[in-house]
Design goal:
about 450 residues, mainly alpha, two-stranded antiparallel sheet, 4 strands, about 60% helix, globular
Length: about 450
């Protein structure tokens, strides 16, 4: 009996401490909402567990080794974001950065993957120094609000585009670049999932995106078994929701395999620089986009706890090099959890903890097909379009740079390109009009690095 009441007392005390630490009352949330939000974010980002090793393994790295590294980076970084920065943002190895690591640094320049990991580590160290001395915070504050709104909307369009591409609803076309695919059982399944998930969202059902993912996954089971053929969108495998078992042991073969000395050679400086500024622009745009869409801002209108969040992002890049992965960065898919009501770091902690079991149960990841998560990504795009109403469309010197940033993100398939061209166009237009007071010294510095990044 004493043990029973002691346990109850401990649980109550733990909950009170946790509620106070994450400031549930201040942000008008509760534990149940944060758990649902964290689970939703995890489901929207869990694809990285398989996608990241599939890309990095082309360098000669062990697929299972990178998978383990991806899980460790994602879990540790997300938990740190939640506990230290109290922000509902997942941090994991970044898409785009892993492609640069593989196709540009290793395969393109012939750099050994161990040396490339060293470059990732050193870029993280520089990143951390910039964050500690508030230089990155100054960069955030130098970004005009009109561009911030545009970045949020542009990322929304980008996420929607990714959702449609993942579902193979939008496909490439030699004549028109992109077009809509012909209806087949897979597309019909996706559309049913999209409309069901939309209705759940409209009715404000808690966990709507999770239920939508589960529903669409179940709906996908007959494809390739009873009707249809998923070979075209599923790496030659005719069935979706393919069961590959449950258990597999983690592989630690790529941990601490980085080459720190050779990665400091002069020829590697451009690679370190590219990692640094690509990660910089990606993480800044994510913080700004999520903050503007969900009103996660402080009393000055800046993204909440931005300095701490940027430090976490920098630490994530540093440990990525140590553990054997491309740089970690903040994930825009975190907006899925925010839309489910996640407002504190508990959302990120829940997501981070959910990564860990897949060190041993990674085959389960194959159960959820891309068409099941696509509806959630598309609807998040809708949510993130809200700030577009704040753009000053009547003043073209504000509207044109904002529009370029917003539209180029999805059209170039790059958040970085959108934000770079919005910066450059803003500066050129304001200078031409003599509005020098709207251009800060830090913005000019950003422009210079943006131009250098374009050439890299």
């Amino acid at each position: 009996m004493l043990l029973y009441y002691s346990t109850l007392l401990f649980e109550h005390a733990f909950f009170v401490i946790m509620k106070d630490y994450f400031q549930f009352s201040k942000y008008n949330t509760n534990l149940k909402t944060e758990i649902i939000a964290g689970t939703t974010t995890f489901l929207a980002t869990m694809y990285i567990i398989v996608v990241n090793p599939s890309i990095l393994s082309e360098t000669g790295m062990s697929f299972n080794g990178v998978l383990t590294a991806t899980i460790l980076v994602s879990s540790f970084s997300s938990i740190m974001m939640g506990i230290y920065a109290n922000n509902p943002i997942v941090v994991a190895p970044g898409m785009g950065l892993n492609a640069f690591f593989t196709y540009s640094a290793v395969l393109g320049m012939g750099i050994k993957w161990e040396v490339a990991l060293g470059a990732v580590f050193w870029s993280g160290i520089i990143f951390l120094i910039l964050s500690i001395f508030k230089i990155r915070t100054m960069i955030v504050q130098a970004i005009p609000k009109q561009i911030r709104y545009a970045i949020s909307a542009g990322i929304g369009l980008f996420i929607t585009f990714i959702g449609f591409v993942n579902a193979k609803f939008i496909v490439d076309n030699p004549a028109t670049l992109v077009s809509i695919a012909k209806l087949d059982p897979i597309l019909i399944t996706f559309l049913i999932g999209l409309f069901v998930t939309s209705i759940l969202v409209i009715k404000k059902i808690n966990g709507a995106l999770i239920f939508g993912i589960i529903f669409t996954t179940i709906l996908s089971i007959p494809i390739g078994r009873i009707y249809g053929d998923a070979s075209v969108i599923n790496f030659g495998v005719p069935t979706l929701v393919t069961w590959n078992g449950i258990f597999s042991m983690p592989d630690f073969s790529v941990i601490l395999k980085l080459n720190l000395l050779d990665s400091l050679s002069l020829s590697l400086i451009p690679i370190i620089f590219a990692f640094l500024f690509t990660d910089l622009f990606d993480s800044l745009s994510t913080f700004i986009g999520v903050a503007e869409a969900a009103n996660l801002v402080d009393e000055n209108g800046e993204p909440r706890n931005i300095r701490k969040s940027l430090i976490v992002d920098a630490v994530s890049t540093t440990i990525s090099g140590l553990l054997g992965s491309s740089p970690g960065t903040s994930y825009i898919e975190s907006a899925t959890g925010v839309e489910e009501g996640g407002r504190t770091g508990m959302t990120a902690v829940v997501s981070g903890l959910l990564f860990l079991p897949f060190m041993f149960f990674s085959p389960i990841m194959s159960v959820v097909p891309a068409i099941a998560t696509a509806p959630a990504l598309i609807l998040v795009g809708v949510f993130m379009m809200k700030p577009v109403l704040k753009i000053n469309w009547l003043d073209f010197d504000d509207a044109i740079p904002a529009y370029l940033g917003m539209i180029l993100i999805p059209l170039t398939y790059s958040i970085t390109q959108g934000i770079i061209w919005s910066f450059i166009s803003w500066t050129i237009i304001k200078v031409a009009l003599g509005k020098y007071n709207e251009i800060t010294p830090m913005l000019i510095i950003i422009d210079i690095f943006a131009i250098i990044t374009l050439f890299l």
